[in-house]
Design goal:
By secondary structure, this protein is α+β, with helices and mostly antiparallel strands. It is about 35% helix and about 20% strand. It has four helices and eight strands.
Length: about 200
């Protein structure tokens, strides 16, 4: 009988302990991987707000405008007249019998004409200036002498007029415009050509 009482008591103690064991198992399951929070997979590096933006295009479109200072052009006769005056060669605008614009100006001691060519049908919108000057010789010159001059020149060629006087011309295209410095260098070249011409033909 004593053994039965002890056995019953032991069974009662075991039954009382089972809920606690079950509860302990439940607490252990709460730490299992299936119930754990997922690890933070975000990068620890600072975020780059522009990472998804396309690369910045620093390429500039070509500049098709005229360079600074490009203000002398056969398209504007006044700009040519002003540039000549600034260089110490005051000129005068004239109209040829054909209606073509021309500027009369003294360069290297002689009356030079600057005629406007490569123009539109109205002779108004032009691109080329033709510098020309004639030497008034007492007896004129010969074609052989003119050809001798031309054989030694790459700019400023000579042709003979009806009186066999040598006429020198020099074409200078300005297109949409050239700088005053470029224009000045061409006027200086023309000035030197006239001096060389007078010496060559003993004027």
């Amino acid at each position: 009988m004593k053994h039965l009482v002890l056995l019953a008591a032991a069974g009662l103690m075991l039954a009382t302990a089972m809920p606690a064991f079950a509860a302990g198992s439940s607490d252990t399951d709460s730490l299992s991987p299936k119930n754990a929070q997922p690890p933070n997979t975000a990068s620890s590096a600072p975020e780059d707000d522009n990472s998804s933006a396309p690369p910045e295009d620093n390429t500039q479109p070509p500049d098709t405008s005229a360079p600074a200072g490009d203000n002398v052009t056969a398209r504007d006769p006044q700009s040519v007249l002003t540039a000549l005056s600034n260089l110490g060669y005051p000129g005068k605008l004239e109209k040829m019998d054909s209606g073509r614009t021309s500027i009369a100006v003294r360069i290297s001691g002689l009356k030079t004409y600057i005629d406007f060519y490569d123009c539109d049908d109205n002779l108004a919108d032009c691109y080329t200036l033709l510098f020309n000057v004639a030497l008034d010789l007492k007896k004129g010159t010969t074609m052989d002498k003119a050809n001798e001059w031309n054989s030694k020149q790459i700019t400023g060629r000579v042709w003979l007029d009806d009186n066999k006087d040598p006429t020198l011309d020099f074409a200078f295209s300005t297109f949409n415009g050239v700088s005053e410095d470029t224009f000045e260098q061409n006027v200086k070249l023309w000035d030197k050509k006239i001096s060389d011409l007078k010496e060559f033909f003993n004027f």
